[in-house]
Structures are given as C-alpha cells and as structure tokens.
C-alpha cells in the first residue's frame, strides 16, 4: 500500500504534465498500471527549446487516446502574465537568482487544472522529485485552484528508486529508451524561455567550478565578442515592449534578448541556495535575456519612480521573491503584493540604453517622457528655484532633534 | 545677518574638516573673517589617494597654529569599523549602490567631535554643499555625538555663490590657487579607500553615457586583460581576512582588492539615485574592491548562513542601507540592526574563489569548516537518511491547507 | 523681512483653513494686513461638533466677500474616503493611537487646494503651530496637490509670540474676543467625527494622570452603566455598513458608534508619542466609535481573511500608520499600500457582536457567509477529512530540517 | 507498521513530557507496550497551578523507576528567560494574542532534551495532538537541540482515536481514571504562569459567546470591584522588577500581577486565530498579569525609547510573534531579532502607574531617570531653545520636494 494520501481513494482520470521524455513516459505507464486510470497528457511549450510533436507521437504510442493529448504553446502567456509581472518587482531570490524555474510552475499547474475541470479528471500528476522545490510549486498550484483534486507525485510513491529499476520498468512496458538516456545524466536540467538551470552530480561540490559543458544558453564570456553590443529597450508601464525601436510581443522580445544575452555571455549564475524543503542546494542558472531585462527595468525605474515607491518596492521584494520561490503564486499575499507593485508602474515608461559586454550588462542611458529627473520638473515656475539650500538647515535640524536628545541623555549619564 | 541657526550665538573655536584643497581653504579663511573665531583643521587619510603633508603646509600658511592642525591616518579604522560592518549586511542602496561616500562621513564627524571635545571647541564646519546628502550625514553625526555643538555649513550661509566670487575671495585673502582650479571642474569628485564617485556637469544628462575620462579607479573593461584573474578570499565571522592565503589587515586587504578590481575593470556604476534631500541625481561610482568583496561575502554566506538568518537579513537590508545613505549611522535603529546582523555572522567563515574578468566578478567556489551544505551534516547518523521524501507530501499538504480553504470558498461562490 | 520661503514672492489670493475661532480670525486679519492679499475662507464640518454659520458671520464681519466664504459639510466624505480606508488597515500609530487628528488633515488640504484652483488663488494658509505634526500634514498635502502653491504658516512667521500680543492684535483689528478666550486655555483641543484630542499645559507632565475635565467625548468608565451594551456591526468589503441590522451611511454609522462609545466610556487613551518633527509629546485621545470599529474590523477579518493576507497586513501596518501620522496620505507609497490592503478586503463581509462595558470592547461573536472558519469548508468532500494528522509529521520534519542541520553543526563544534 | 518516522528504528529510552493526568498516563503505558522501551518522565511546574507530587506517585504506580522520574520547578526560569524577553518585544500574535501557550513549549522541549542527553535517551515524546500548533513547537525544539533524536507523537501514531478506545486502554492497563474524566471534557485547557487557554467543543462556534464557566483565571469584569485598583510597576532594562515599590523575582512578580488581574477581570480574549498547521481555530485566552505587563511595558518605552528604535521594533514585532507562535524559538532568526530587541532596552527603566478597572488596564502615569521626554533634555543650554520653529519650514519643504515633483508630473500630463 502506498504511503501517499493520493492513494486513499480510487483515481479515475489523471492529467499528467508530460514532456515526452523518458521519465514522464515511465510515469505515464506507471499511472496506468498502478492506478488503472485514464491518463490525459499535457505538454506545454514554455520556450524550453524542444519540439512538441514527438511528445504527441510518444503519447499515442503509449496508448493515450488522441482526445486525451493536449499540447499548447504557452510562450506568450508565460512571459506576459508571469515573467513580466515578476520583473516589475525586480525579484531576486537570495539576492541573485531571477527565479526562472519557479515562475513557470504555476502556469503549468493552472493549465493542468483547467484540463482536469474540462474533462472531469479527479487527479493530476507531475514528474518532480521528492527532494526539490518543484513538487511544492506544482502542488500548491493544484490545491489552490482545485481544492478537492487528488495529487499523484510518482517520485514520492513508487519503488523505482534506482536508474536500473527505472530502465527495467521502461523495458518491461516497451517504452522506447534513447541511447544517450541509458547512462545516468551528469546533471539534471530545467529550461524555459526565461532560463535554463542545472543541478546535481557534477555540480554537487560547491567548491568546484561549474564545468563549461554544463552551460547551454550562453557562450563563455571569454569567447564573447571583443566589441560591446549596445541596445535600447523600450518600456511601457513597467513592461518591456521594444528593442532598438522595434515593437515586439512579450515572448518575441524575451527571445530576442536571449539571443543577445547568449552571444555576449550574459546571465550565468553559480549559486548555493536554500530550498523551501529545508536543505541547501547548488545550482547553475542561465538567464541571458532576463538578466538584461532586470537591469533595464531598474534603469527605467530609476528616473520614473518616486523614492517612496522605489524604497517600498525594494523592502518588499525579498518577501515577494520568496513567495514565488516557495510556490505561493496563487496566494492572497502574492496577489496583494502584486497589486502594490502594479500600482507603482503606471509611469514606468521610456527607453534605456545598455551595453552588453563579455558577461556584463552596463546601463549607459535612460530617458522618459515621465522622468522625475527632468530639470523642468525641478523648476516649478519661471525664474523660481524649487530648492532653497537654506531649507536644508531646518531639514537637518529636525531630523537631528531626536539624536540630540539621545546624545544629551548619554552626556547626562556620563556615557 | 546670516540665516543659519549657527550664527545665533558667537563661535569661539571651530573644528573644520579640511582637505587642503581650494574650497576648504576658502572656507577656512571665511570662518576666520566671518566668525572671527579660532580655526582647528582636521585632515584625514581615508584612502582618498592624496598626500596629507601639503594640507599641513597650507593650513600653516593660512595662519593656523601648529597645535591646531590635526592630521590622521584613519584607513584601518575606516575599513574595520565602518566598511566591514556594513558589508556584513550586503548593503546596497536602491539595489545597486555600495554606499562608498555615505559610510565615510560618520567617521569624519566622529573625529571632528573628538577634537572639539578635547580642545573645547564649540563649533564644527564642513565643506559639503546645501543640495546634497553629505551635509546631512556630517551634521547628523555632529548632533548625535555632541548635541550642543554649533554647526557651520558655509555653502548654505555665504554669498560666494559663483565660481568668480569664490576666486575673488581667494585672491583677496591670498589663498594660493592651482592653475587647473581656475576653471570650473567638469564634475565633482569624492574618494576614499572604498570608492570614488563623480557627479554634476558632464554627468547631468542621464541619457548620455559617462565619458571614459571621468573614471579614475578602474580601467575600461574593454581594455582589461583577456585572461581572467582568479583569487581566493578568506573570511572570518563575516569579515574578509586574507587574499590568496595571505592574511591582511582590513585596509591592506581592501587596497589589494582595489588593485585587482582596477586592473579588471570592476565596480563601475552609472546610477540615477534618490537623495535624502528630495531630488534625483545622477552619479558615477567606482567601487572596485568593494564590488569583489560584496560577491565574496554573499558567496561565503551562501554555505554558512541558515535560510532563516539569510532571508531576515535580506528583508532588512534595504532599510539598513537607507539609514546609512541618509546619514543615520549614529542612530539607535542602525545600531539595533547592526546587532541583529552581527549576531548572524558567527560562523560566516571560510574561503571563496572568484573569477575577475573584464568588469565581471564570478563566484566559482566556496568552502567552509562550518558549511551547512556539507553532506555529512545532512546525514545525521550512520546509515540513516535525514531526508525522507514522504515527508514532503505532508509538508505540502499542510502548506496547501489554507489555499485549499480559499479555493473552496471561491468554488462555493462560483468564482 | 520674513524668514519664510512663502514671503519671497507677492501673494495675491490665499485660501485659509478657517474655523471661525479667535486664532484663525487673527490669522485672517494678519494675512490681510501683512500680505495685503485677498483672503478666501474655507470652513469644513468634519464632525467637530460646532455650528458653522457663526464662522460665516464672523468672516463677513472681518471683511471677507460673500463669494469668498466656503463652508462645506465633509462628514460623509471624511468617513467614507479617509477613515474607512484607514481602518481597513487596522492602523495604530505606536501600537495604540487610532490617528484621529492625522487622518483629517489631508481632506482639509485637498479642499483648500480645490478652491484655490477654482478661484485662481496662489496661496494657502493654516493655523497649525510650528512645533506640531499638523503643519507637516497640511503642507505635504498642499504641495503634493499643487506643487507651485505658496504656503503661509503664520505661527512660524509672525511675531505674535505671546497671548498678550495676540489679544492686542485682535483688539487693534476689532476682532471680537469671547470672554472665556481672554485667559490662556489649560490645554489645546482638536476634534472631528473620529476623535477629540487634547495636549499641552495641564497634560505636560506624563507622570500625572489626565484630569477628568479634559475629556469631552466620553463619560468616565467608572460612571458608565453597570450593565453591558451588546451591539452587532455589519461589514461589507472591510467597511462597516450597519449597526444592529440598521443600514447606515458612513458618517451616520460613526456618529452612532460614537454615542455608544461615549455612553460606555470607551476609547480614552493617554499617550506619550513621538512626533514627526522630532520630539516626544503627551496627548489625550478620545476615539469612542473608532475604538469599537477597530475591534469589530479585527473580528470580522479573523474569520474571513486568510493567514497569509492577515499577516502581511499586520507586518505592513506600522509603516502605513506612520505614513498617515507623518502626513504622507498623498504619497505613492501610501497609495501602493492602500492598493495592497484594499485587495485583501473583498470578502471581509459579515457581522460581529461586541460587548461594550465600562471602557472595554469585548468581541463575543462573528459570522460571515464567506467565513474561512466554516466547518463545511474544512471538509472537502463527503465523508472525507481534509486534514490528515499524519501530514503533520512531514510538515514538522521539513520545517525542522534546517534547524537540525544547524544543531548538527553546533554538535560538531562542541558548542 | 506505523507511518511515523519515529518507528523506523528501535527506541531504547524515551523522555516523556508527563503531566500526571490521564492522557499522558495512557501515553506512558502505550510507549512501554508499543515500543518496549524504558520511559523517563519529566514533569515541570510552569505555574499551571497543579500539585506535582501526585505525578510522581502515578509514575511510580505505572512502573517508572524512581531515578527515571524528573520533576522540576521552572517558574523562575520560564518568566526570566522566556516570558520577559518576549514581552520586551511587545509581542502580540495577530494583533491580540499574548502567546501564553507558545512561549512555554520551547522550555519544556529544552528540559526534555537535557534529560535525554544526561541519561542517554534516544527519543522524546509529548502529548500534543496532531491538529494543533503544540506538536510543532515541541518538535522544532527537540530537533534544533538534538538533531538525531527520535520523536514520538502518540496522538499521530496510535489507533486510540476515540474516547472509548482511550478509556478501554486505560482500564486494560490499570491506569486510574478519575471519575470526572470518564466523560469527554467540554473543552481542552492549557495553563502556565502566563496564561490559561481553552479551545474545542463548546467553543467551536465562533458566533457564540464563550460561556462564563470556561474562564478560570479571571473573574467576570462585571463582577469585579466597583473601584479601580491603582498600581505602580518598576522596570529595569525592559523587564518588570517591582510592584508598588516592592522588588520581586520574575515569577513572584508575574504571580502578583496575575492576582491583580484576576481580581479586576483583566486579560480575557476570545479569538479566532490562524494556526501554523493551516486552519483557523477559536480559542479563549486569559492572560491577567501579562495583559497588565504589556501595557506597562509600552508605557515605560513611550518615554525612554527613541522613535527610530520604537518604530523599528513595531515593524518587526509581527514577524517575531509569528516565529514564537510557529515554534521557532530556537532558530537563528528569532535569536537575531532578540539581539535587536535587547539592544534597544538598555534605558527602558522607570516606573509606570496603571489603573485596573473592570477588565481594563489604563496607563495613567510614567516616569524615568532616562526619560527622553524630560524638558531639561529638550533644552540644550541655558536660555536657549533647542527647537526653532523656523526649522520646520525647511523640514517640510524638503520632505515635500519629491511630492511636488510628482505633482508637477501629473499637472504636465493633465491628470
């Protein structure tokens, strides 16, 4: 008997997040044989860079009915409704990580639940392991959107705990195994339009440099061009809308930034991070376009956002990033913070110029019709000066008043 | 009659923060002539890269008594008691600025007050203008440490409001004027061991790139070596103590990091920031060694700091940085936050390896005897596994409970 | 020549916040004689409990043209757009003060500016002193809404620095002086529909109890009825809408709560607080209806608000309260926080029962169609239990993982 | 096979938190019969108001060896090292709850672990249920202090899921059953020197008032004396040290405050709260002495704590309270916050006067040798005034500058 709560009632139909790869194909078969239930596959294009048609063929081969196979291009929705709102917050987890994996999970969960509701499925399943954050992100999404759903997490339930056991299961059930999948991968990978990440095996010792062959989205900064690339990004209400004057849809824009980032070796990150499930892990992230976007957004905010707004955003950012990292996208507190952040972006419009060079992104210019830096704004009327330096004396005196009182107390006490 | 509160009572002795340059020499003379008071000069070596003996000669020339001339090398104290504590917090103002100017002011203020107390001076004076942050930082320090002090801020008081007026005053009072000081400087500069900054004039249009001649502490990344430099920094309790195995005093260490940073074009920042006094300004900062230190500290914390400690620090950092930027170093709230930060650094000990390359600092390894990443730690006893992936199911279920309740409410309402 | 920046350019028309009392009548005349400008009076009914018609008569008497006299009943707008939004946040300054004075200032400032825009006035004036918070609250409002306005703060400008001087000025200008205004008041008062406050003179020693005659809005708890009063308040989307089943407009509702509070001695507060301008002051506040409202709102939130939402609100409340106290109602950061708070209130609907007894408000019941406490919600389907206590083991294990790792490090180090 | 992780390895010796009551006696026997292990009992006097000797007799009767019975009076340690540090923070969970249950758990956990280390026990056990917060608080403490410990939580493991099953087990194992324990209790109770709490059964409907017979620590406010009681509490460095001039040890002081609170009907709270394990629950709390202490501490802080310190504390309080509520007393982040809080309390010394009356605590006076309110402090030197109201103009002007810039932008845009 399984230990999973999911096994406590019979499952009739399950919607599986299916990549078409070996692991999720094994899960597919395992669901059929273990639960005896109808399996619906959902395969999404989030910009991971793989063909989706083979997934359909493989699903058919594994006995999935054509009407139970769902394949969807989610790239625009992903960037428009998930990546961009998050970048409005300048979100970085633990000061450095741009949350590329975290932000994709809620969208996949949402789509699985939509299909489950449409087809009357009572369960959903994913291929995330029992030690990572992704299981949490998937499942919090599932439960938030369909509170009575049964969640099946095969990696936490089955006894296929070794590579050998997995391959035996695959062979036994005639699941095709690509030649290069026989051996164990030297690291595991996640990818979408925002980033690629790798962890495990060869990356496990945080004292050792990440080998170059682990990177897939960026060239080595040392091999990047010797002359910088200069680009202009246009922003509207906090979101990037154009590159070098060319208007682009969200996904097209990020795709183009990725190409620019790749060519200039931008967005590599070697990080030891704290997982929500309690341990530290070491990961390698490549976020070429996202890294450019991050600096671009900071730059346009620097002239269009008021200090009070900017500092409030900065103070709340770590909490916002933590919520996304931990899988709480569909929570009231994330939505409340989003309302606060979005409120601030009304005038975050303008263009920034960036220099891309051998791994670095350098802000070199910013302009906006709504600039708060604008000299005309500082001068309030003809001939008048808005700033009187004598005001500074009073400003300082009153700010100092409590410190003087404290100083006086110390003096009185002989401290 | 002057508008300054400082003029309301007669001043007998004033301690002036004196650089030996033209501007503070004019201030010196102006204090003598306007207030008719005895002037004490204080000149500090904070690593700004200038000889101090000429300041003594000039002070003597301007009629300061030898016993009223104070010159002090503060580099070690500056790095040990100000820069390092601040770097324990990973402090960045507005997400990017490492606070190089801000952190030097409290120390200068403290030394002026110490001299004032020793010599019975009733006033202090500084050369910061009436539109910037530095006047606030100096004066909040003065008032906190000597609440009854009279503060004289000549730039807010006098009528020498043009370059011409200043030079006329200088000539009238036989203050030597270096040839290159006759014209107006194309930008103003502040420098100490942590950084150099420039602002004003040629930098005023934030749409235009900072001209290369403005940089003084770093070479252009494009002219930096084609092969990376790899270094190891040793940390103890949150502070850097060695480079490549060589133990170094705080100031020596930062000096060496500055040389490494300079050579690799590291630490340039072109920023539009929000001043405490209310307007935006555009500045150029060079923090070569500090930038390396920032990434090194983040790296050593990543393996030695617990998640709860790390996230709390990240959440409080913006407030801490703002306090320092705004000049509240000597405030109870800064001291309280420092107590919290310092408490977290007990085991932030170990070494990190960094790759410096054409403007970039890349973390490539970290090790510590106190690592929380250590495999041995994760395994609690022989043969036992600390992490049971079945626990994750319960963990997720309870984290999801409130989201499911919310989802149930929505469903009930047909939302 | 005045020191005020306001005096630097001639003033043509000024909109004065005019109560009709002696002090603002003196200000009215002083503006006419000092600035030689046209004065427009604005008198608002914010529920302070005074007739407004006498203010009109007095303004006419002092030579104000009828078309320059503005009198407006703002009670509904005050409660609906200022008091209620603030109570959604459960705002308390320094843990105890319900911000009764602070919240009225922005509305008065807004109305003055609206009149100034309509009549082409270039200046505004108020009667707040130079040592308090109200001057800041008025003026930040003025400047935010009309950045080029000239602000006149007579108490900071004139030389009428004693009671005698004021009375002489009044007599000289034939301003009627009520008999009881000849002597100095034993304390100063502010009042509106939300509260009455007193400070100064007899209240200045914080060691001494506030004399009973200072209270005007509540009876002494000791003299309140010996039997409790039990009431029901209905809430919709975070705002109170009914009492004991009777639907009431915002101002009517608060008026009724005030009567209930007064009769039961509720809402007295004796506080030493920290002013924005830097010193501590001691005040006495009476907020009878507001105190009841505060507990009622907390009670209805307790069953309708999710934990994540509730805790986020609690964490941000001190900052929100501080912004209002300091006068930053019309700031982007207050508006951002308001967006966050309002987002949370969608389902804060239902009724609460409260017991009012001799100064105390006791929550004794709460119900809501949107309750998250509802048993039916906790059970997700027939016969099934949403909560499996075995999940708790996993939940605890993973929450403990990082603490165990820390414990292991300590043990290894022999600590 | 049990689902508990605790069952995966044999247990030799277990330290049980033993009250001597029926439930923990059943647990004791169940541990012996299920695990076949040696049981060590630990019974603490935390001021719950019960004799401890009967617990010893009962343990002996149930076969525990005399040397395995530990009974300890922890009242002083409890108040000094847990209650007082928490009150320095003015901690309230969800705005109202003084954390009476939460704060006792870490101390019990710590003592159990100390005994386990001394006697070489490999396991600990507690009697908290699987649906509450206490299991989390106990176990996080255990794991933090002894990471390799085996935790046994019988309520999550056994099949004694009904009252009948429990009684049968008791009878079968000859555990004496008091007559009044045969029926099911109408609510469950927790008590210690800080508070008593009740929940469950008759309290489950949050719409219904708590019946009077549920209260045990306070008399009904309506039955409290008709004349107020006035007391003086002395504080030193943030902790209460005397009542009406009489120096008292921490536990004696809290005991006396409890008596005063009881007699005046103070400290009753009827609350719907959010549990860490995910659901809402309704509880009734009585914290008579703690409620008085809370207001007393706020009052003494109001004159001795600087604004910056006070506001920082207020902003961090909700997080601190949440940590304690959730069971993270022994976490680095709680210790970091404690360091911050303790740093602020150096001068929180003086006396406050409070009026206790029919359920209410009213602050009526406060004095301190370190008062920051003191008039002498505000005046810095003879004849001089520290506060110049003209300074306020500059203070406001610079604080308004960014708001004016924003206003100008709006105007430019015609908004």
TrEMBL record, chains A, B, C, D:
Keywords assigned by UniProt, alphabetized: Amino-acid biosynthesis, Arginine biosynthesis, ATP-binding, Cytoplasm, Ligase, Nucleotide-binding
One Gene Ontology term from the biological process aspect of the record: argininosuccinate metabolic process
Gene3D superfamilies: Argininosuccinate synthetase, chain A, domain 2, HUPs, Single helix bin
The Arginosuccinate synthase C-terminal domain, residue ranges: 187-404
A Gene Ontology term for the protein's cellular component: cytoplasm
InterPro entries reported in the protein's UniProt record: Arginosuc_syn_C, Arginosuc_syn_N, Arginosuc_synth, Arginosuc_synth_CS, Arginosuc_synth_type_1_subfam, AS_cat/multimer_dom_body, Rossmann-like_a/b/a_fold
Positions of ATP binding: 17-25, 44, 127
Binding site for L-aspartate: 129, 133-134
Residues involved in L-citrulline binding: 97, 102, 133, 137, 188, 197, 273, 285
Pathway this chain belongs to: Amino-acid biosynthesis; L-arginine biosynthesis; L-arginine from L-ornithine and carbamoyl phosphate: step 2/3
EC top class, as a word: ligase
UniProt domain Arginosuccinate synthase-like N-terminal: residue ranges: 13-176
Entries under SUPFAM superfamilies matching the protein: Adenine nucleotide alpha hydrolases-like, Argininosuccinate synthetase, C-terminal domain
GO molecular function, one term: argininosuccinate synthase activity
Compartments where found: Cytoplasm
Pfam families on file: Arginosuc_syn_C (PF20979), Arginosuc_synth (PF00764)
Record field: catalytic activity: L-citrulline + L-aspartate + ATP = 2-(N(omega)-L-arginino)succinate + AMP + diphosphate + H(+)
EC number of the protein: 6.3.4.5
PANTHER family, per the entry: ARGININOSUCCINATE SYNTHASE
Family: Belongs to the argininosuccinate synthase family. Type 1 subfamily.
Subunit structure: Homotetramer.
Protein name: Argininosuccinate synthase
Organism field: Chelatococcus asaccharovorans
